[in-house]
Queue: 2 jobs
Job 1
Amino acid sequence: MTGPILLTGGSGRLGQELRQLMPDLIAPPRQELDITQPETLTACLARYRPAGLIHAAAYTNVAQAETDRDLCWQVNVQGTRHLVQATQHLGIPLIHISTDYVFAGERGNYREGDMPGPPLNYYALTKLVAEEVVRVHPHPLIIRTSFRPRTWPYPVAFTDVFTSQDYVDVIAPDIALAIQHWADIPDDTLHIATERKSVYELAQRRCPTVQPGSRSQARVPLPADSSLDCTRWQTLKQAWSLAHA
Ligand SMILES: NC(=O)c1ccc[n+]([C@@H]2O[C@H](COP(=O)([O-])OP(=O)(O)OC[C@H]3O[C@@H](n4cnc5c(N)ncnc54)[C@H](OP(=O)(O)O)[C@@H]3O)[C@@H](O)[C@H]2O)c1
């Protein structure tokens, strides 16, 4: 891809990791690019003339979204709509970062083509609607993923919630690889995560003192098993590594 790549959400957990891995990414701060204010987006696209856009900005506080619905919708749905409208008009390809929470989590091991929903909480609803907004774009790539900060942030982790999420410093290099190979990805949806495990098992890897808990303790309904089947991603990665061997 020739030309700069613009990143939204560059100050976030994932965005900061991506910027370290890909220092050429252009990541305007919110004062310069507020996705709820379309005129700031138009100005940025004219200023940087990006060859592609990575959309990692979102309202991500799952518990707070239950009561802060208007802002969550404005950022996750309307903000994404502004990006789609502006980039499709200029023929700029778009990568949208989505979540495993688009699935209800009744059975896990979800493949890209599986029907999402019904969403279990308001954040998940907005992320699912945002995916459908993005599918209007002629060159979309929706990356569904899930990650935690580098260190486990809570005293408790749930033994009865299953996930393929991982720590952000494990997930971000794969997302950076996907960005680098963007032109070689034939699909419009890609699951990037690691193997299925309980959240407790994941937490123990970096916080051996973490206590076991249950999802019944959560302040908001959470999917029981939102693990993602990542075969498509693993196959692509293997093909690229063979091509470079
Ligand atoms: N964290 C997870 O567990 C997880 C799991 C699956 C998928 N995801 C998805 O991954 C992506 C990145 O998540 P994250 O955890 O890295 O996010 P985060 O740490 O919560 O950061 C959110 C980012 O979005 C920006 N943002 C919020 N509202 C904005 C607006 N109106 N205009 C411009 N920027 C705005 C924030 O900017 P400010 O610094 O200015 O607030 C920040 O850079 C999101 O799409 C999220 O849905 C996250």
Job 2
Amino acid sequence: MAKVGNKQLGRARRAKEDEFYTRLEDIERELRHYENHFKGKTVLCNCDDPRVSNFFHYFSYRFEALGLKRLITTCYKNQERDLFSQNDSERAIWLEYTGDKNGNRIPDPEEIGIRQFEGDGDFRSEECIELLKQADIVVTNPPFSLFREYVAQLVKYDKKFLIIGNQNAITYKEIFPLFMSNKIWLGYGFKRNCAHFITHYEDTATDADHREGMIRVPSVTWFTNLEIPKRHEEMVLYRKYDPLDYPTYVNYDAIEVGKTSEIPDDFNGVMGVPITYMYKHNPDQFEILGMSLDLADMSVIRKRLGCNNGGPTFYIEQDGHLIRLYNRIAIRRRRK
Ligand SMILES: C[S@@+](CC[C@H](N)C(=O)[O-])C[C@H]1O[C@@H](n2cnc3c(N)ncnc32)[C@H](O)[C@@H]1O
């Protein structure tokens, strides 16, 4: 793959490196778990470029199989004419597909309605919100840099959604409360939680995972509010609680469980687990109480260390030393 020059890189940075296109195989692998949701529904893929988007490809070719009513995709016209945008027209556009008309089971160009926006097709614009209102389910890979706003808008308009985002978004202060109140959860995800996106940005991955014309983005996953069986699968737990294996935090009343698979089966108190626990969360099995970011009592730590050693988080003590841990999620077993 050709390397991009400094000038282009500057433009890419300004565009916040949001131009990643999702692979068809990744869309297919996730969407096969949701097929029962789409019958008679209008699907909106905003934040898209329908002419290169595999989302448009997937839904238009699966239109009849899914029993869709209508497919709408919108294409943003970046004001800065970003590095890789395929949309060279002066205006942003949106496409509409209502299914195969000539019986060849292929979405032909004459069956796809192309309309121009007055504005730039920003998902927050009135025109796009109007299309959002008409949609039942939104499926896309929105710009990671606008993820908070993007989700807030979906919640505001009470939409069902299946979208791609960075795993770190779980802990955003705007997003985590949605997990706590069961308004959002994680889908099935990418292999090893790592996605390959089609892009022209240079891939800095040096390992065997490098793929030509793609960039490897770690810790990427699907966020949804569509019901999936995975969400009700009980985690099978094999460990028994032993205070020697599970230290108690110095600054919060809970035990430390460093690996989700090691959650003790017989402990009914509060436990701190890594963020990746959210991939396994079953709201019938455990309740989420909060994040260490919000729960940690840092006055205890300040007193011990005489200073603030970074942001709020849980600490354990080992051989007289305080050990600072990564962000944890506090959970408690629902009574069996
Ligand atoms: C990560 S890419 C994903 C593209 C496509 N959904 C896919 O997965 O193949 C995000 C897309 O959102 C577009 N975008 C960026 N800012 C936007 C905005 N404010 N409103 C709508 N789309 C935007 C970008 O141009 C880009 O095409």
